[in-house]
Amino acid sequence: MKIEQLHALFLQCDSVCTDTRKIKKNNLFFALKGENFNGNTYAEQALKNGAKYAIIDEVQFNTSSKTILVKNVLETLQELAAYHRTQLNIPIIALTGSNGKTTTKELINATLSKSYKTTATVGNLNNHIGVPLTLLSMTTSTQIGIVEMGANHQKEIEFLCNIAKPDYGYITNFGKAHLEGFGSIEGVIKGKSEMYDFLTNNNKTIFVNGNDMIQIEKTTHANRFVFGKNNRDFDINIDFIEALPFVKSEYNNLEIESQLIGDYNFNNIAAAIAIGNYFKVKDHDIKASIENYTPTNNRSQIIKKGTNTIILDAYNANPTSMRAALLNFEKQPNTQKTACIGDMFELGKDAEKEHQNIVDLATSLNIDQVVFIGENFYKTKTKSNKSKQFNSFNDFKDWFNGSKTENNAILIKGSRGMALERILDFI
Predict the structure, then answer these.
(1) Is 387 annotated as contributing to ligand binding?
(2) Residue 54 pairs with which residues in a beta bridge?
(3) pLDDT (tens digit per residue) in 195-224
C-alpha cells in the first residue's frame, strides 16, 4: 500500500494507538515490536477493542480485511508521520537539549496556547516513536506544533528533523547527558547541533540563548532570534531577578514570578517568553502563562509533608543537572538541609569519574547531610562525616525509616531508573 493510500485511511480514524490497553473506538493501531513484546500478536484484540484498522508486518496475522500488511510497522509509522507533516500547513517548533527539554516545551506550549491552537509532545514522548505519534496527533485545527526531540546517539536528531521538518528550533543547553552513547561532551554538542544543521541548511529560524556562547558560535551563519539578559543588542532582553525560592524575571517592564525553583530554570522561562514574543503573544498573556505553570511529574516539584519541605526532582539526572540542583539547593533559605542523591545512568566509561565529582561537590557545599544511593555512588570515596552511602534503595530505606525527619528541606534527585520518588512514601 502506498503511503498516500495509508494516509487516506489514517484520516478516516480519530487517532493513532500502539497499546491495545488504550485502544478507543476508531483508532488506527500500529503493531510495534519491542524486546519483550510483539504487537502483531495483539492486532486481533485491537480490532475487537474498536480499532478501525491494524497495521502489521507478519503475514500470519493478516487475517482480516481490517489488517494492513506492511514490510515494517515502525518504519511505516515514521513514513506516515513524515507524509502527514507535508500535508500540515503550519509552523512547527522543535526543541532538544541535555536538560530542561520537557519543562521548556511545557512553558512554550502554555505561552503559545494563549493565542493559538497548539499541539505539543505529550510528556516526554520524544524519540523515534514519540515524535511520529506527536506529528500524527496534529489536525487541521492545529495552528502551531511543538515537538520535543531526545537523543542519545549521533544522527538521531537529524533523523527526527527529517521526519518533523521543523520551521523553528531551540536547543536548551549542551550538558553531560548520555555520555555512554555520545562518547563525550564534544559528542553531545555535535549530536544536538544536528538540529542547527537542519534548520540552517533549510533556511529556517533558530531561537538562541545569547548568554550561551556555544549556541552563539554554532548559529553565526543562521537565521536566528537571540534572547538573553544584560545585553540590549539581543532581539529581546529578559532580566533575571532572583530564584529564592522561585524564579523571578523581568520582561518589557513586567515582573514575572514563576512557580519554578532554581536559577537554571531562568533560561527555560526566558525561552518561552522569547518565543511567545516572536509569535506576538500579548505581554500580559505571556506573564500569566508563566506564572500559572505548575511543574509536575517529579520535575522540580515543591511538596510539603508535615514539617518537611521536599524538592522532588527525581524524573532524571545527569552530571550537569545534578550539579545545578545541588548548587541551587545550597542557596535555599532553610536551616536544615538533606540531599538524597541517586545514581546517574548512561555515563559509560565516565561513570566513575562523574559520580566522584558529584560526591566531591555535594560534600563541599553548605548542606547538612548528603545521602548517596546506588551502586555507582557506593563505589565513590568520601571522608565527609555528613555523608552516607547505600548500595541499594532498600538499604537506604531501612536506614531512613529509622531516622526522625522534621523541619528539613529535602532534595530528592536521581536518574529515572532509581525511581527516588519512592522516598515520599516514608517521609
Answers:
(1) no
(2) 29, 67
(3) 999 999 999 999 999 999 999 999 999 999
